[in-house]
Amino acid sequence: MAEDDELVTERFAAESLVRTGADDIERAAEAALRPRRLEEFVGQRVVRDQLSLVLEAARNRGRAPDHVLLSGPPGLGKTTLAMIIAAELGASLRITSGPAIQHAGDLAAVLSSLEEGEVLFIDEIHRLARPAEELLYVAMEDFRVDVVVGKGAGASAIPLSLPPFTVVGATTRAGLLPAPLRDRFGFTGHLDFYDADELERVLLRSAGLLGVSLAGEAAAEIASRSRGTPRIANRLLRRVRDWAEVRGDGTLSIEAARAALAVFEVDDRGLDRLDRAVLTALCTRFGGGPVGLTTLAVAVGEEPETVETVAEPFLFREGFVGRTPRGRIAMPAAWAHLGLDVPRDQGALFG
Ligand SMILES: Nc1ncnc2c1ncn2[C@@H]1O[C@H](COP(=O)(O)OP(=O)(O)OP(=O)(O)O)[C@@H](O)[C@H]1O
């Protein structure tokens, strides 16, 4: 097996270990479509160029690169980039996440088992518990972890030095990272939503990997309804393929794309059930707002974090929802999208 293939196998094995649950099949389908090298990674030109420089410099020096923080909404490629970083360095990747680390001791165990040059990917790093965070930034700065032996008054800390390694942290909420942790990252890349052309390229690449032929018009249609997000684009592509195979003639035509997207309730602006639930609650239940995040989340039956990180970034960006000091408000585009008139008393809020 070529070295690259070994690394990839190792990474996917690691990934399948940390991710369990009902969406395993979707995760596996997603993993198969991941770009494996920086040159295959579509869009995000600025971050890609910067990373390419950081990685090449590290390779030339024969040293582990600075720690990397990747921020941005879900599904834009943070995990993919972490895997690419390891592949580009010829290093193996260890994967964990903030919520998976319950105690500082769990993190100490991961850190003390790292080998020289390894890349440690910590997804949702903003959700690390405070003691784990403190342990992490000492490890990132001094390549040292203090192992506590014993309990209570007799406890003592034995410093254990670690080989050089690189942390790649991913977060949908960079603002929640405490400054001491944020400062330990030598490079921060912010991923932004993709434009329609970039998503078309993602889709055509994925169709090639899936061995299906995707009509150009169908790619454009799916891209325009993918909320600027490659994960959504790939997911919709798989649903269009399902439709084409079961109800159509197997070709991923524009007609198949439109029919499948109607079945899966993705509207012409790419809004899905959760997005529409948020807009409907905001406009009809709360009269257009302002309303606080928690109240809004309860109204749509979701966690505040899901509404905030999954639905809102796109709704803000597309001008459906606005933010005021007193809470979220429905913008004129939200009322129009739901086919409703803006109530007269709401007009003053938009200024
Ligand atoms: N730039 C890209 N080019 C091609 N495919 C991409 C790109 N970015 C992401 N993808 C695809 O989108 C899917 C989701 O990407 P990924 O899991 O890396 O997102 P993420 O930002 O880590 O999301 P989350 O924060 O939810 O874990 C992957 O299957 C990957 O194939």
Topology:
Elements: H1 3-18, H2 24-32, H3 45-61, E1 68-71, H4 78-89, E2 93-97, H5 104-112, E3 119-123, H6 130-142, E4 144-149, E5 156-161, E6 166-171, H7 179-183, E7 187-190, H8 196-210, H9 216-224, H10 230-246, H11 254-263, H12 273-285, H13 293-300, H14 304-317, E8 321-324, E9 327-330, H15 332-337
Parallel strand pairs: 1-6, 1-7, 2-3, 3-6
Antiparallel strand pairs: 4-5, 8-9
Helix pairs in contact: 5-6, 8-9, 8-10, 9-11, 10-11, 12-13, 13-14
Provide an overview of this structure:
Belongs to the RuvB family. Residues 195-265 are annotated as: Small ATPAse domain (RuvB-S). Residues 64-197 form the AAA+ ATPase domain. Its EC number is 3.6.4.-. This is Holliday junction branch migration complex subunit RuvB. The protein has 351 residues and is α/β, with parallel strands linked by helices. It folds into three domains: 3-190, Rossmann fold (3-Layer(aba) Sandwich); 196-263, Helicase, Ruva Protein, domain 3 (Orthogonal Bundle); 273-350, Orthogonal Bundle (Arc Repressor Mutant, subunit A), CATH 1.10.10. Helix content is 49%, strand content 13%. The protein has helices spanning 3-18, 24-32, 45-61, 78-89, 104-112, 130-142, 179-183, 196-210, 216-224, 230-246, 254-263, 273-285, 293-300, 304-317, 332-337, and strands spanning 68-71, 93-97, 119-123, 144-149, 156-161, 166-171, 187-190, 321-324, 327-330. The strands form three sheets. A five-stranded parallel sheet has the order 2-3-6-1-7. Strands 4-5 form a two-stranded antiparallel ribbon. Helix 5 (104-112) packs parallel to helix 6 (130-142), helix 10 crosses helix 11 and helix 13 (293-300) crosses helix 14. The longest helix is centred in the first third of the chain and has 17 residues, at 45-61. The radius of gyration is 23 Å and the shape is globular. Residues 1-20 have low confidence and may be disordered. Bound molecules: adenosine-5'-triphosphate.
